[in-house]
Amino acid sequence: MLSAAQGGAEWALSALYRDLHPSLVRLLLAQEPAEGEDLASDVWVDVARGLGRFQGDESAFRCWLFTIARRRLIDLRRSRARRRTAPVDHFIDRPDSRDPFAGVETGEALMYLAALPPAQAEIVLLRVVGGLDSYEVAAVTGRKPGTVRVMQKRALERLAELMSFDAEVHVTR
Amino acid sequence: MSSWSDLDTEMERLPLDTNTADRLLAGSIAPEDAPPGYAGVATLLAAIGDSPGAEEPAGASEAVASLGAVVRSSQTQITRPSRRSNLPRLKLATAFVTVALAGTTGLAFADSLPGAAQSVASSMLATLGVTVPGTNSNAGDHPNVRGKSSETAVTTSDSGKGSEISELATSTDLTGVAKGAAISTLASDGKSKAGQNGRTASTHGAPVDTPDGGGTATADTASGGQSSDGTATANTASDGHSVAGSDNAADGLSHGP
Questions:
Q1: In this complex, do A149 and B3 lie within 8 Å of one another by their Cβ atoms?
Q2: Which of A74, A127, B18, B217 is a plausible cystine mate for A149, CB 3.0–4.6 Å?
Q3: Residue A82 distance to chain B (closest CA, Å)
Q4: Between vectors from CA B55 to CA B49 and to CA B56, what angle results, nearest 5°?
């Protein structure tokens, strides 16, 4: 399919787009809510331009796609020189605060991620939304696989702490 | 009634090992199977990773069509640079060949090429139906036919001249300018004029008499007696010391050899 896509076959490009675009948009929206859609479009244009020179299997293609997305995100943040949005306090005042986990929606879950250090949140998103394993995440982020495994462990511990704190706040109300 | 999440928060959270964290992120641990304190995290991760399903992304068809166009145009751009890089060279080479042919043909028409070149140009252009003059008067000493490596080298009347010159140089009784003139004349077949303008030591004229002791008198005469006046003036001014050196020299007290 990749070779067909490299030749410009629309059926192959369509299959790639339908398979990966939802994850790409979710990943970018999670980190840049206002710019995610535009960034995703830019990423696909970059992919289309470089597809003729790409070498590798579909796993490598997925890594490549998310690497481009990551670089686009970094460029955007550098150009704007501002930090991400969505502080964790928004969760405390969410509409249904009686049960912190009942009916949790994706958008709300992503807000929990926003409370993590950006590098940890990025790794969790690449793992969960991007569907990459720890080795692929290491390749995309330019870290060692062992480092990624430690960072993702700390990210989950931090998430558990945040959710536990949120539940305690709910109980005391 | 307590929900499962309440129970989760009430449980003491155990340290998480990296393998369990990896499995949680991979979605291979259900919330109810998660370690104590991590059921909520497992639920959260499931919510984050919840795919919108097989629904069509908005504007997918247009996006894919645009991507296809970009991919195809990129492929064209990838193959173009090699053509681009060769084109200027090809143009340059073509221009050079054209100019060279036009120039050579023009010179051939003007009968201005050297002998052999004119002959070659004449024969080559004749095959194209163009008539130009053959070997011309401008050829001079140039051969009017192309040489071949197999042909015998051109012989000259100069062969053996070196040994002849050498013999002259070692056996002649002549010396000085006359010897050089003789050798030069032989080497140049009489074209050299070396030595003809020269003169031997005896023909340079008589030596000029220079009165060694008359310098002072000559200077005195030439200056109308004023050079002696200077000496007398210096002598007077120095109370006779200015001539003391001369006296010392006359008395053999000079430091000179």
A1: no
A2: B18
A3: 24
A4: 120
The per-residue pLDDT for range B81-124, each reduced to its tens digit, is 555 567 777 788 888 888 888 887 787 777 777 777 777 777 87
Interatomic CA distance for residues B96 and B94, integer angstroms: 5
Q: How many residues does chain A have?
A: 173
**Amino acid identity, residue B218?**
T
Are the C-beta atoms of A152 and A123 separated by less than 8 Å? yes
- Range of the structural domain that residue A166 is part of: 2-172
Inform me whether the C-beta atom of residue A30 falls under 8 Å from chain B C-beta atoms: yes
pTM: 0.50
What distance in Å separates the CA atoms of residue A35 and residue A15, rounded to the nearest whole number? 24
Query: Which among A99, A156, A159 is the nearest to B5, CB-wise?
Result: A99
* CA pair distance B84, B97, nearest whole angstrom: 21
CATH number, position A145: 1.10.10.10
Q: Hey, are the CB atoms on A22 and B57 less than 8 Å from each other?
A: yes
- For chain A, the domain total comes to 1
> Contact at 8 Å (CB) between B209 and B201?
no
**Chain B environment of A168 (Cβ under 8 Å):** 9
